[in-house]
Every structure is written in structure tokens, then in C-alpha cells.
Amino acid sequence: MSETPKLKRCEDVAPLLVFYACDELTSEEREQIVAHLAICDGCRAQLSEEDALQAAIDRMPQVADQFESSGVLLAQCRSELSESLDELSAPKVKEGWQPFAWVRAWMALRPGWSAAALLLVGAIVGTQAIPWLPVNPGNGGGSAVKVYAAPRITPDTLNKMAVSGINFSRPTGKIQLQLQAEQPMTLSSDEDDADVRRVLTFVISNSDRFDAGVRLDCVEALRGAASDEQARAALLSAARKDQNPAVRLKALDALRDMAGMPAVRDVLLEALQHDANPGVRVEAINLLVRAIDSGSELPELAPEAPDSESPVQGVAPQALPFPGKDSEQRILRALDNLRQHDSNRYVRLRSAAALRQIAQQDMQ
Amino acid sequence: MPLSRWVLALADNSGRTSGSAAALATVTSLPNLDERALVSEAQAGNRAAFEDLVRRYDRDVLRLALNLMKRPEDARDVYQEAFLKVYRNLHRFRFECSFYTWLYRIVTNVCLDHLRRRQARPEDQAPEIHPNRMEEGPRDFFDYQKEHRPTLDPERSLIGKEIQSRIVRAMERLSPRERVVFEMKHYQGLKLRAIGDALGTTEETVKNSLFRATRKLRNELAGLR
Asked: Complex ipTM, two decimals?
């Protein structure tokens, strides 16, 4: 370890007085300087100047004292740092490849030029490029290509819709439906015949959801389409199950021309025997008589249930017209049963009249 | 002048503190017993640990930045930049020195960068704020009232103000490094060795900077007495 050289001359001591004043010398250097100051007035005077300078520096007011006293600046700094840290901590959104990003940037900054450029491009494409487009030779003859739109009425629409209006014209058979669904819509049998039928049959088949007046209108509207299997099934269902007797009556009336069909006849017979409303029973009688009068070939009915109506009393089955024809036998038995036991007088009278009418026809 | 916590820590780290300061450093460094764990937590990505570290030293950082930059907006920039650098580079800290030393090194480097930039483009800079010069501005009623204290010597007061304004002028002529060393020595109370640690240089270099800075101040004050 080298020994500190002796500080005897003023030119050696003077540069160290600065550090002597601010206490940055080793103890050895300090001792030597103290020894020199004891014998040197010049260096002592210089040290006093250094001390004065140190004192002046120490007395200097600080900018930090002025701004930091309130703590506002520190609070601002902390807040800004916290925000910056949030940004740094947040996961970076990976930007995918963006084709033509520079074009978009250019256009965003120059809206006027962009509009002009787009117009120019549009004009060029419209006037120059379209004639060069290849024409499909298979479609060159101008033959029309039928494009079928997807059905507008979905099962979901059916479940949520309400019928706000039904317009139909008997002479032309045109039907127009106004529906309230998520989007109000109008269906016409001219354009959406399948959808119109779907809506009508849905309304008739879901009597608990729709008003009786609407159901009546729907049955009336479907009258012309009774030959359609789907429509007929809906009418049969209405005639059998609808809560409203007017609707059942209307449904039976709509099936008037189909009375010769087994399913229709089954429903007529069922109405004849079990419908609670006398008007419906009378209508069923009329339709059955009409079917027999018209001479239509009545196919066999479904076998009679053992616990069904008791045999017609007073008229023996073998004495009834159309012997061997079980279906007619069943109708006659049912009519005879009504004639004797129906609670409604008019029904009893109408049943007796029907039996006579059938008997007369048979005689002829 | 009260010694800030990190000054004491730096002094403690350099191992050359005087008696009272050393004792104080021992007391104030007690909460730092878990600082290593705190730094490790922050290195592992614990945001709360990092913010705890920030709150331990940011008051001193801001004070240093304010005194060096002389403008609050620049001091805010220094604060932000320094702590964001700490945050980004914390994983590189290997505990080879104390966290304070490492932080101080970053802060002084940021300050030096700002001062050098300011020196390179003085035309872009707003004027610095000096408490002395503010006194030269508009005064309120009390500034004009007669001073009745018998100890006050108006002539000495005037000379004192003149000295201070000359020191301010001289400070503006210091190089960025001289300014940082001067500030750290006289207003942060650091030993030259600790300043050398913070600036990443030798004590001898720091000594030279301080000597040059003091010489410039003395020259500015020459002829005043």
C-alpha cells in the first residue's frame, strides 16, 4: 500500500481544499492539510472562501422543495406510471396480416382523392371490363332458370306467429294472410301457396293458440283445398277436436264433397254419435244422407268397437237397406239410435226423416 | 439537509459513511431486510411487489429529477422513463449491487440523457425554473413591508441574493455530468464513491467532475467580494 505523499507545498494543498471543505479526503490527507493550514495564511484564506462557497451552495433554494411539497406532482407521476404499467402488462393483440393496409391508410388520409379514385375505378370496370367477362354458353339461349326461394315460413315462425288478417275470395280461391311474426309479413296463395296452406292447417290444428274467429276463417279458406291430403287431415282434426261447435260445423261443411271417403265418413259418424252440439249432429246427418243419396260407393268403415253405441233398437239390422254393406248398416243403426234416444227433439226428427229418405231411395 | 433513504442505503453500500449516517442507515435499512424477496417477486412478474419498490424510492427519484431538470414536466418524463426502464430490465438485475445503486444508475443515466439532449437543442427548451428568479417576478404585499428584525443586514441579504443568482448561472454552464455530480454531492448528500457507483465510473473521475464544477462556480463568483 503506497503511502500518501506529504502535502507541504501550497500548489499541492490548494486543489484539495475543495474536497477538504466537503469532507471528501482521507483522514491522512486531512491531517496533512490541517498541518499545512496552521502555517499558511494564503491557503487558510482560500479555505475560508471554499467554506463560504459551500455555505452559499447549501443555502440555495431547491426546485424540488417548491414542487414536491404538495405531493401533487408525485401523485401525478405515480398515476402516469401505473397507466403505463397497465399498458405494458396488457396482452398484446396480435395483428394479423392486413392486405392493402397502406391503401386504406392512404385513403383515410385523403378522402377527396379516395372518392375520385373509387369513382374512376368504378367507371373503368363498368365500361371496359364487363364486356370482357365470359358468358356461360349453357345459359346463352336465354332459357329461364328457375330459382326457388327458401320457404319463408319456418317451424319457429309458425310457433311464434299470430294471424292478424285473412282475406279470401271464393270465386277465385285466392287467399291472402297477414301475419305478425318477428317481422310482419303478408302471404298470398298466388305466390306462396304452400306456405299459405301450412299456416292455415297449423292454425286449425292448434285450436288452443288461435281465436275461434280466425280458425273459422282458416277453415273457410281451406274449403277449396279439401282434396289436398294435408288440408283434409287438418279439417278432419278440426271437425273432431275443435272446442268451438261453429268451427266443427264449418269443418264438416268443408268436407261435404269428400263424404264418400272412409276417413271423412268415420268423422261424420263420430260426430253423429258423440258430438255434444245438436247442430253439428244434424249437419253430420245431412252429410251422411247426402253421401248415400249421391250413390257413392261407400267403402268399409273401420270395425265397430265392442263398447260403442248399443245396437239400434226397433230396427233390426237385417231389415235395414243395403244389406251386407256394413258401413251403411252402421250409419243406419246410428241414425236409428238418434231417432229414439237423442236428447234433442230436432235431431230425433231429422234422424227419422233421414231414415225415411234412405228407405225411399232404397225402394226406388 | 435531511438524508434520503436511498442516499443512506447507497452510503451504506459503499461502506464509507460517517458515524451518525451509518447508524441511521442501519435503522432505515431494517425494512429493506425483505427487499431482496420483494425484488425477486417483482422479477417473477408480481406487479404489487414492483409498485412497492417504486413507492420506496420514487419520492427521492422525483426530487433528484426536479433538481437536475429544473422543470416539473421534464422531471415527470425522467420519472416515467426511469421506472419503466427498471420494469423492463428488472429481470437483468442479478443482485451484484444493491437495488438502490442499480436504480440510481438508471435514474442518473436518464437524467444525463435528458440534459445532453437539452444541451444539444437549447432552442427547443422552455426556460428552467429557479426559485431565485421567481423571486424577481411579481411580488405580493408582504414583499414590500419593512423588515424589523434587528439581525437582518440588508446589504448582506442583497449580496446573498446576488451570489445565489450567480450560482444558478454557473450551474447552467456545467456539463450534464458535472451537474449531476454537483447535485448528488451537494443536494443528495452522496459520497463521491457512491456517486461513482451510481454513474458507473470511478471515484477519481467523479472527483475531477466535482472539482471542475466548483472551479466554474468560483470563477462566476469572483469579484463579488
From this structure: 0.71
